[in-house]
Design goal:
about 425 residues; alpha/beta; 6-stranded mixed sheet; 17 helices
Length: about 425
């Protein structure tokens, strides 16, 4: 499904930049008339630049979500039914721009809730959240702390879910004994490094070298890979590298003759990686984000409405752009909508109280609000997470594994490595 983009000379990044430029300044289309009551939701994430793959596809998914909800009558509050409208602001993964965007969305656009990728941009936004009491969401629970009372992580518990891939790999491929890892040196990479180190230690897999941390400005990955595989590891871990790093690293691994196991947090646009390497090279690659046409997502425990239909519609509208976040922001909106309707109000205080009342309905099943020991606050929704492998050129869910169960057994290891990388909440504060 990526061939049209590749053959036309339009790269994934330039596609994202060109499409984001149109959307960033305005609102997504909605099925509503001028006289309808409207709830506005802020979308504050990178829509251009190196991190756009974790922003723009999520905004596209929200367009589909909004049309579905509005066609079904909107969001039903105590004072009537409301259509939903998303207002986007491109923060370019820059803390100062994120702060400007948060202020605009609240003061000028009158949003009721703001979704973010998080990471390096959250420190720029937190003063605005503290001052206004606005409810924000992040895809990175490592943003959480005891004072982030209006910040929730209801979709993914990054990077803790990465332990599930390592655990599955150790049980199903016990012959793999050694590993190496690389990551960009930033707020996305470092907590993930600590998590993978804990997971490898828990699984009895030896790290041959200290994790190789590269500058986020790196563009030439040949020397990175040469150094990475010098010790002939069984496993190469790509941590939570951005897709603009995963792709060239995978190409270099292929070109430099690596024959072992690859594990990564994400494998966005893996079809393009296969085209640049080979189906055999990426066969069995482990990562954490499924395609939503996977039959395993039709089970009764899944709390995402019509995942197969959502996936089909997304790929019809945005061919070649399905990735890790395409469904996540929409999933957050499912939780927000349910909480707002339960509370009968879109006010941030009422929504978060309703959201945290009882068990959470995570996309992959029932989950618990969790995190005090690791994040200083129980504002992360944690439960099962899928382990995904590329098989026959297609992402395939191998198993769902429970994150709290792993943590109950190995939490001390995770805390040890988080402390070593200064990633515990009290260190980051």
């Amino acid at each position: 499904m990526f061939s049209k983009i590749v053959k036309s000379g339009l790269t994934r990044r330039t596609f994202l930049q060109s499409t984001a430029a149109v959307t960033a300044a305005g609102s997504l289309p909605r099925m509503a008339l001028a006289q309808d009551k409207v709830i506005k939701i802020g979308f504050l994430a990178p829509l251009t630049g190196a991190v756009a793959a974790w922003g723009k596809p999520g905004l596209d998914g929200c367009e589909i979500w909004a049309e579905r909800v509005n066609a079904a009558g909107g969001i039903k509050l105590s004072d009537g039914d409301y259509m939903v409208e998303f207002v986007a602001y491109d923060n370019e993964y820059d803390p100062a721009k994120a702060r400007t965007g948060a202020t605009k969305l609240i003061r000028e656009d009158g949003v009721s809730f703001i979704m973010m990728l998080g990471g390096d941009t959250w420190p720029g936004v937190q003063p605005v959240a503290d001052k206004t009491g606005m409810l924000f969401s992040t895809l990175l629970p490592s943003d959480l702390g005891p004072d982030t009372t209006t910040l929730i992580a209801p979709a993914e518990v990054h990077p803790i879910y990465n332990v599930t891939g390592v655990e599955w790999l150790a049980e199903n491929k016990p012959e793999l004994k050694t590993a190496v890892m690389c990551a960009q040196d930033d707020a996305l990479g470092l907590p993930s490094v600590a998590t993978y180190l804990a997971a490898f230690e828990a699984a009895g897999i030896e790290m041959l070298e200290e994790p190789l941390l590269f500058d986020p400005a790196t563009t030439d990955f040949a020397p990175v890979v040469t150094k990475l595989i010098a010790g002939n590891p069984d496993i190469v871990c790509l941590d939570t590298c951005y897709s603009d790093y995963v792709h060239p690293i995978a190409e270099q691994l292929f070109q430099q003759g690596f024959k072992g196991q690859i594990i990564s947090c994400t494998a966005d646009f893996y079809d393009q990686m296969i085209e640049k390497t080979s189906p055999e090279f990426l066969e069995g690659m482990i990562f954490q984000f499924p395609d939503f046409d996977d039959p395993a997502l039709n089970a009764d425990n899944i709390n995402f409405d019509d995942p197969n239909g959502f996936y089909a519609e997304f790929n019809k509208r945005f061919p070649g752009q399905w990735g890790a976040v395409s469904w996540e922001y929409a999933s957050i909106m499912d939780l927000w909508k349910a909480a707002a309707e339960k509370a009968g109000s879109a006010e941030p205080d009422a929504v978060i109280a309703a959201m945290k009342d009882g068990k959470g309905k995570h996309a992959f099943g029932d989950a618990q609000w969790w995190g005090t020991e690791l994040f200083g606050i129980d504002n992360a929704l944690v439960g099962d997470w899928p382990v995904v492998a590329i098989e026959g050129g297609k992402a395939t869910i191998k198993e769902f594994r429970n994150i709290p169960s792993w943590y109950d057994k190995h939490g001390d290891l995770l805390i040890k490595h988080m402390k070593a990388y200064d990633q515990m909440w009290d260190q980051r504060s």
